């Protein structure tokens, strides 16, 4: 599964709990983005997830489910991304929900389609931070330490810098970039147009664009080419 995500430079994240018209969905899926991730931190149900998957399947691009609620474990995705929030003291978001999921779904779990994401949640004023009780008051050294736990101690395929709803501190992103060697570095949060997309694309492997799809789809679409046109900096040239 690592091979599937390796080429992903740009992805759109669609929230099953939000409305998106057919025209907008078509534009997003035909934009040239590398993949769609379906996910949200609240209000994700089996029904709204099935319905969004069926609509996305009209288009020919990979579609992953980022599992945030057991009730929404819908079969038929190309990939299942499993978040573990590293910077919370509430272990249910690191292991607890995961244990329950495995007890509940057992042999139904398509293990070969699962990828674990080491989440570092950095916007204290986001649903995901409130939900998981994440400690978002991290400086660059602390964020970098969590990133190395994911990359070097846990060997996770993905480190996800999650600024959901706000544009991140690029000094922190840069520090994390310098330290992550094996994991694929995802960044998501507050990208509202091409300039921000380019800045992030220079530092991270994969750029995730979410909320702006729902408020200004034209700006969201411009991020695709912006990421394509941006060369990623080598760690040595940061
Ligand atoms: C049978 C079948 C098809 C199985 C496939 C999947 C499955 C159930 C596998 C079982 C194995 C397993 C280990 C599952 C994990 C179960 C689980 C619920 C884990 C908890 C994951 C977690 C830490 C969730 C917390 C929230 C989170 C990190 C969500 C990620 C998405 C995210 C941050 C969205 C942003 O939220 P948004 O709502 O957009 O925020 P804003 O409102 O601020 O925009
Ligand atoms: O919605 P935005 O702020 O673009 O963030 C994208 C994604 O990281 C959310 O999980
Ligand atoms: Mg969102």
Task: Please specify the SSE layout and strand pairing.
Blueprint (H helix, E strand, L loop, with lengths): L1 H4 L4 E5 L7 H8 L5 E4 L7 H11 L6 E4 L12 E7 L10 H10 L8 E8 L5 H6 L7 H14 L4 E5 L7 H10 L4 E5 L5 H10 L2 E4 L2 H4 L1 H12 L10
Helix pairs in contact: 6-7, 8-10
Bound molecules: the ligand CC(C)=CCC/C(C)=C/CC/C(C)=C/CC/C(C)=C/CC/C(C)=C/CC/C(C)=C/CC/C(C)=C/COP(=O)(O)OP(=O)(O)O, SN-glycerol-1-phosphate and magnesium ion (MG).
In short:
The protein has 238 residues and is an alpha/beta fold. The chain has 10 helices and 8 strands.
Verbal overview:
Mg(2+) binds at residues 15, 41. Its cofactor is Mg(2+). Keywords: Lipid biosynthesis, Lipid metabolism, Magnesium, Metal-binding, Phospholipid biosynthesis, Phospholipid metabolism, Transferase. This protein has 238 residues and is α/β, with parallel strands linked by helices. It has one domain (2-236): TIM Barrel, CATH 3.20.20.390. It contains ten helices and eight strands. The protein has helices spanning 2-5, 22-29, 46-56, 96-105, 127-132, 140-153, 170-179, 194-203, 212-215, 217-228, and strands spanning 10-14, 35-38, 63-66, 79-85, 114-121, 158-162, 184-188, 206-209. β6 (158-162), α7 (170-179) and β7 form a beta-alpha-beta unit. The structure holds ligand L4TTDIOY, SN-glycerol-1-phosphate and magnesium ion (MG). The ligand CC(C)=CCC/C(C)=C/CC/C(C)=C/CC/C(C)=C/CC/C(C)=C/CC/C(C)=C/CC/C(C)=C/COP(=O)(O)OP(=O)(O)O is lined by residues 15, 39-42, 66-70, 73, 75, 80, 82-83, 85, 93, 97-98, 101-102, 105, 108-109, 119, 126-128, 131-132, 162, 164-165, 210-211.
């Amino acid at each position: 599964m690592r091979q599937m995500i390796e080429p992903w430079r740009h992805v759109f994240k669609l929230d099953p709990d939000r409305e998106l018209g057919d025209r907008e969905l078509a534009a997003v899926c035909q934009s040239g983005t590398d993949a769609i991730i379906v996910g949200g931190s609240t209000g994700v149900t089996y029904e709204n997830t099935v319905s969004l998957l069926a609509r996305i399947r009209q288009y020919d691009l990979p579609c992953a489910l980022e599992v945030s609620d057991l009730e929404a474990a819908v079969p038929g995705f190309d990939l299942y991304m499993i978040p573990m929030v590293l910077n919370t003291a509430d272990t249910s978001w690191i292991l607890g929900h995961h244990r329950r999921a495995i007890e509940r779904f057992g042999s139904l779990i398509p293990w070969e389609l699962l990828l674990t994401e080491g989440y570092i949640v950095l916007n204290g004023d986001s649903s995901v931070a409130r939900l998981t009780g994440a400690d978002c008051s991290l400086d660059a050294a602390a964020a970098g330490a969590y990133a190395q736990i994911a990359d070097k101690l846990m060997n996770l395929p993905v480190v996800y810098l999650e600024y959901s709803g706000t544009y991140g501190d690029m000094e922190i992103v840069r520090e994390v970039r310098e330290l992550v060697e094996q994991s694929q570095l995802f960044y998501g949060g507050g990208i509202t147009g091409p300039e921000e997309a380019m800045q992030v694309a220079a530092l991270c492997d994969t750029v995730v664009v979410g909320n702006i799809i729902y408020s200004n789809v034209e700006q969201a679409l411009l991020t695709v080419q912006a990421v394509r046109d941006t060369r990623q900096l080598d760690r040595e040239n940061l």
